[in-house]
Amino acid sequence: MGGDRNAGLVIGFGLSLARAPGQILSIAQSAGSSRVRIMQVQARAAIAQLKSGDSRVLNLLAAARCAGWAKRDGASMLFLPECFGFLGQDSDQTISRADPPIVVPTDADCDLDTDFRNMPNFSLLLASTVFSHADGLNQVTYEDDDSRGRYDEEEVSILDGLQTIARESGLWISGGGMHESGAPNDPSSGRPRVYNSHVILDDKGRIKCVYRKSHMFDVSIPNKVNLKESATTAPGTDLVVCDSPVGRLGLSTCYDLRFPEMYVKLVQNGAEVLLVPSAFTVPTGKAHWHTLLTGK
Q: Which of 4, 29, 261, 282 is the most buried (most CB within 10 A)?
């Protein structure tokens, strides 16, 4: 969703369920019939649930801590939820703090420069957080308010930080939803909007693919929820699948879960694992989350 913390959110992740150790159930549909296939998966996946806020510094340190734990436990890929890097106080803050437009490199072997040019010490802090938690030392705490005060939030790029974490941990990372500038303005109001972008990075921190959420969360429940994501977030138009150590991924985000035809098309395009990083509201999460996931 659009990243308004006042809505009351549960930030988590939906992933196709393992049928047995090292196996994932994949369902494909064609010509009106269904087939179920068990595929062997040797890689281990780690899934993080976060309590994100409006400090990109603290949110990235939380992701670095999770990456350290994932590395310690032998995972090859870490999955982060929607709004992992920023959950603003309101939509204006979300728009103003969005990352620059994301470009997928055409050269897979291009060199990376993911250190923060104005804050190289922050890259070092992310790296040390990964290593200390991978080694079980836990010497760096992401909840330290001093960390937030030492670094300029305006200079922190969520994507740069995530690339640093991927590179230092040696993990592939699914960044389940971050706000990206460069989207078209709202056609009715002319107001600036962002994309809600799901990014896959490899273990060198290289961008492998970007999916921009296509279904907006516009809902009104009297006395509970009143949100219009489309006012601040523009929809993407492309379906995205991406190879990874845990299989071919079919990318989606949160409210996409309510549109089953999207997942049929992802599987038809070769997806073996369906990703649903989310920041569901509490009322709709309680009512629908598990039902919608199992329906996929």
A: 4
